[in-house]
Design goal:
Oligomer: single chain
Enzyme class: transferase
Largest sheet: 7 strands, parallel
EC number: 2.1.1.14
Bound molecules: glutamine, zinc ion
Low-confidence stretches: 365-370
Strand content: 5-15%
Structural class: alpha/beta
Distance between the termini: 78 Å
Strand order of the largest sheet: 1-5-7-8-9-10-11
Family: Belongs to the vitamin-B12 independent methionine synthase family.
Radius of gyration: 27 Å
Protein name: 5-methyltetrahydropteroyltriglutamate--homocysteine S-methyltransferase
GO molecular function, one term: 5-methyltetrahydropteroyltriglutamate-homocysteine S-methyltransferase activity
Length: 723
């Protein structure tokens, strides 16, 4: 048995935010993309952010500083560049890196998808049988040198080879049966070379991130990869880092290799066979990189003791939390963002492990206290059968193939500026609200003029579909500057759900009824569903997520009933994040889907039969959730399908497969929309087919919306006439 490598730092983090405390990277990227600033400016901002991060981590007393955790866009994309896995179509582009990330004229970007169960999105590498791996880019080495010049010795972080290949997709044109993992040995050649280059530079430790161990730990690829890498004579010591769950299945595989250290995400409990790691350094991920709550130091020390760990770290990269609490005045004493978490890690390393007296709770997230307090139920949850509801809704007098939109209309710079002025106290409520009414009037007038059948108010009062509701519900706090990277330059500011959720007053009724007062056509009320609200928030850890979601569902339910009472006949409750909370392990998915569906049905189940409930999801061909989408039991479901066909098979109620892709500024022609509708009619009967774009119009301009919707209405008319 090898001896413990006791030169591993006592305190470290697996990664750190990189967008900049004031989103400096976002602004620099956008200036570069728009041609307002050159590449040198972008490079300068990157260098400054890296320098500031290392300096700050050192100031906070952190012992082991990571490097190569910075990225101009995404660490998986960086890895593809590092091993030269650049598909041919980008090689001639002026800037292949950003072409892969964002596409350029006529060249589509790489596909983007969620990084495990987080809200961070990575770019999906394309690997084929002929991809030629080579160690080309020198980013890890360059960052090591850059840090050294600033006086810091760092541990470069690389996406591990197994995770990289498992997250890749087969390049177009690959033969049947090919999977990127088939190329493991070729990729390992490159990793071996990179490791020897780093060793030659005198680097002591390298971190290989393998979150795939959580879902795929038992695969032979893991053992093979780490036998080869660790068996190579000229290499730095290896820290294999796993996170986002328990890696019990991977422990036997790692145990037969000679990797020197393993970082475990102990926020999901201590793996049963942790003894298998004896003789190695165990790095205890006891400070959660996913939550924003202060760490219970006693429990963390007990977890360290149970795992036999003397080294402390974050459970995963701190990329998923905001930079710091500086400038925030919410929830005093309860929160920890990245900087505060680093201070906790340093403190825990100084305190060391301590077995708790008596039985230690070393299971997953502690759930303490009584169940969440819910209001007494307000009426039945189950609505009548669809046929009964459809009959009761007939007096909405909608034509066949009714045309509607998904909710938001363009958010003008004027509206955004007015919202900021109002929030900062620079304008009165009256001024702000009259501007919102003007915007609603503009959206309603446009929809009437175009001949849309079910209108929307356009959501001008909302900064964001979750934050807006969080600001109007008790139990949520919102930050001033708590930005978290979602992808590339895109950041979100997740609200913090910290207590029992209550709706002190109606939220949307004022705007929906104002819009309805302007038109004789039905206006659709617009709400965000309970699952999406919790999925895009930081949630309390002291209650099971299902209970928290149910409380939010109570609040949405009250809003549905108030809209109905105010005369709104059509109400849409969006659940675009239904799939985001799907557990990583297959075995846990059914239970989640059951409560997620129950929460949605609770939120909408107070509506009478004559009220038409719509829902919207931003995808359709997700086999793992299509049964759940059906089970939501909405009267009408609109889905993204502009890129993926007509979606949900065997769906027995109203369905609006998006007729064009709103994410692109391109105007869809009347002919192509007509063709799409005709195709949809092959699988969906005319009396249940709806006509709508595939998502909200918030990111488009009024000119684009007017042109596109003109074609949508004309196409619906043409198809109706031909029936
Ligand atoms: N109603 C929202 C909108 O139109 C839906 C957004 C979404 O699906 N993400 O903006
Ligand atoms: Zn959508």
């Amino acid at each position: 048995m090898r001896s413990v490598s006791d030169d591993f730092p006592v305190s470290t983090v697996l990664g750190y935010p990189r967008i900049g405390p004031d989103r400096e990277l976002k602004h620099a990227l956008e200036a570069y993309w728009d041609g307002r600033a050159g590449r040198d400016h972008l490079e300068r901002v990157g260098r400054r952010l890296r320098a500031d991060t290392w300096r700050r981590l050192a100031e906070l007393g952190l012992d082991g500083l990571p490097s190569n955790t910075f990225s101009f866009y995404d660490q998986v994309l960086d890895t593809a560049m590092l091993v030269d896995a650049v598909p041919d179509r980008y090689r001639e582009c002026a800037d292949p890196y950003f072409a892969m990330a964002r596409g350029v004229d006529g060249v589509a970007p790489l596909r983007m998808t969620k990084w495990f169960d987080t809200n961070y999105h990575y770019l999906v590498p394309e690997i084929g049988p002929r991809t030629r791996f080579r160690a080309v880019a020198d980013k890890p080495l360059a960052e090591v040198r850059e840090a050294r010049e600033l006086g810091h010795e760092t541990r470069p972080v690389l996406v591990g080879p197994v995770t990289f290949l498992r997250l890749a997709q087969a390049a177009p044109g690959s033969p049947d049966g090919f999977t990127p993992v088939d190329r493991l040995d070729d990729l390992l050649d490159v990793y071996v070379r990179l490791l020897s280059l780093l060793a030659a530079e005198g680097v002591g430790w390298v971190q290989l991130d393998e979150p795939i161990l959580v879902t795929d730990g038992g695969s032979p690829a893991v053992r093979h990869a780490y036998r080869r890498l660790a068996g190579h004579p000229r290499r730095p010591k290896l820290l294999v880092a796993s996170y986002f769950g328990d890696i019990a299945d991977a422990l036997p595989a790692l145990a037969v290799t000679s990797v020197e250290a393993v970082a475990l995400d102990l926020t999901h409990g201590v793996p049963e066979d942790v003894e298998l790691l004896r003789g190695r350094t165990v790095v205890a991920g006891v400070v959660s990189g996913r939550e924003v709550w202060r760490t219970d130091l006693d429990r963390a020390r007990a977890l360290m003791a149970a795992a036999g760990a003397t080294r402390v770290s974050s459970s995963c990269s701190l990329l998923h939390v905001p930079y710091s609490l500086r400038g925030e005045d919410i929830l005093p004493g309860r929160l920890a963002f990245a900087e505060e978490k680093v201070a906790e890690i340093v403190a825990l390393a100084a305190l060391g492990p301590k077995a708790a007296p008596g039985a230690v709770d070393t299971g997953g997230t502690a759930v303490t206290g009584a169940g969440s307090r819910r209001r007494p139920d307000t009426g039945v949850t189950e609505r009548s059968a669809y046929a009964v509801r459809a009959a009761a809704q007939r007096d909405l007098n909608l034509p066949t193939l009714p045309v509607t939109t998904i909710g938001s209309f363009p958010q003008t710079a004027e509206v955004r500026a007015a919202r900021q002025a109002f929030a900062a106290g620079r304008s009165s409520r009256e001024e702000y609200e009259s501007l919102i009414e003007r915007e609603i009037g503009r959206a309603v007038a446009l929809q009437e003029r175009l001949g849309i059948d079910v209108l929307v108010h356009g959501e001008p009062e909302r900064n964001d579909m979750v934050q807006y509701f969080a600001e109007h519900l008790d139990g949520f706090a919102v930050t001033r500057n708590g930005w978290v990277q979602s992808y590339g330059s895109r950041c979100t500011r997740p609200p913090i759900l910290h207590g029992d959720v209550r709706r002190p007053a109606p939220i949307t009724v004022r705007w929906a009824t104002y819009a309805q007062s302007l038109t004789g056509r039905p206006v659709k009320g617009m709400l965000t569903g309970p699952v999406t609200i919790v999925a895009w928030s930081f949630v309390r850890a002291d209650r099971p997520l299902r209970d928290v979601t149910m409380q939010v569902a109570d609040a949405v339910r009250e809003e549905v009933r108030d809209l109905e009472a105010a005369g709104i006949r059509v109400i849409q409750v969006d659940e675009p994040a239904l799939r985001e909370l799907l557990p990583l392990r297959k075995g846990d998915q059914d239970e989640y889907l059951a409560w997620a569906v129950a929460a949605y049905r609770h939120a909408t189940g107070g509506a009478g039969d004559a009220t038409q409930i719509h829902t919207h999801l931003c995808y359709s061909n997700a086999a793992d959730v299509s049964a759940a989408i059906d089970a939501l039991d909405a009267d009408v479901t609109s889905i993204e399908s502009a890129r993926s066909g007509t979606g949900v098979p065997g769906f027995g109620r109203g369905l609006g497969p998006g007729v064009y892709d709103i994410h692109s500024p391109r105007i869809p022609s009347r002919a192509e929309i007509t063709a799409r509708l005709q195709r949809a009619l092959r699988t969906i009967p005319a009396e249940r087919l709806w006509v709508n774009p595939d998502c909200g119009l918030k990111t488009r301009t009024y000119e684009q919306v007017e042109e596109a919707l003109t074609n949508v209405v004309a196409a619906a008319g043409a198809v109706r006439a031909s029936m």
